[in-house]
Amino acid sequence: MKPAEQNAAPVWATREQLASRYQVHARTVDEWRRRGILPAFVVSARLVRFPIAECDEGVRRFRHSARWEQKEGGAL
User: For the whole model, what pTM was predicted?
Assistant: First the structure.
């Protein structure tokens, strides 16, 4: 890691912010967290924060494993 990256504070988001970012329902964000797709920092049941960069990577990995993207031509 570069020295500047070590001192950089992570950027956090609420579940509502992530839902808006990924254009899904907030309950979908909860489900992805439960499945381990999205990492979260849980302080209490009402205070949950998500590291945006790590969540983007989790969604990216999830997206690339979609069956329709693995088919020849990209369509079902």
Answer: 0.68
